[in-house]
Amino acid sequence: MISGRSLRGAVPWKSIARTRHADPDAPFSGAIAPAYDVAYDRSLVDILRALAEHDFVVVRDQTRRIAGIVTASDVAAEYGAVAGPFFLIGELDQRLRSVITRNFDLADIRHHCDPDGRRGIRSFDDLSIGDHQRLLQSNELWDRLGRPLNRKTCGVSPEVGAVAVSGRAVGQTDGRTASGQARV
């Protein structure tokens, strides 16, 4: 980089490894690789292919000065932070659907979630998380679960809209409740 605008290349780890493998005595300059630069106002979606290919992009500001770098690792971390809660909701939905499928029949489902038949529920796959909540709020269905769970500490949380055990949502990854019992 010269004066913040002229990009001559970059020295990523892959280039260092390749250069050192070919010649253990190679100078640092031998590891310089072409760098891909993008304008700061480009859409992230537009540069994903370049990120996948080059592992990083150099970002230029509105004056064409080099303003920073975005790595594939940066994008993956941000994606995980943004998408993580949606994955947890999906996992929670699958686990609740599994419990409901094993313990109730479609007649129960229709009675509680589609009493007038307007929704046309034909399978357990037609249920939403709101339906899971509706089903588990039924004392009759709750009792049919046959689980040794206290309704006061294990129930549907209106704030979270999920089954919680001792204050923890059933979607948590450690597989245990706060009291150490296995979750539903």
Q: Overall mean pLDDT score?
A: 81
Order of helices and strands: HEHEEHHHHEEE
Beta-strand share of residues: 5-15%
What count of structural domains?
2
Strand order of the largest sheet: 1-2-3
Shape: elongated
**How can the largest sheet be summarized?**
3 strands, mixed
Ends: how far apart?
Answer: 58 Å
Query: How many strand elements?
Result: 6
Quaternary arrangement of the chains shown? single chain
Give a short synopsis of this structure.
With 184 residues, the chain is an alpha+beta fold. The protein is built from six helices and six strands.
Keywords:
6 strands, CBS domain-containing protein, 6 helices, 2 domains, three-stranded antiparallel sheet, CBS-domain, 184 residues, elongated, alpha+beta, disordered C terminus, three-stranded mixed sheet
Report on this structure.
This protein has two domains: 13-74, Roll (CBS-domain); 88-169, no CATH class. It has helices spanning 13-22, 44-54, 72-103, 106-113, 129-137, 139-144, and strands spanning 37-39, 56-60, 66-71, 154-157, 162-165, 168-169. The protein is built from six helices and six strands; from the N terminus they run αβαββααααβββ. The strands form two sheets. Strands 1-2-3 form a three-stranded mixed β-sheet. The longest helix has 32 residues, at 72-103.
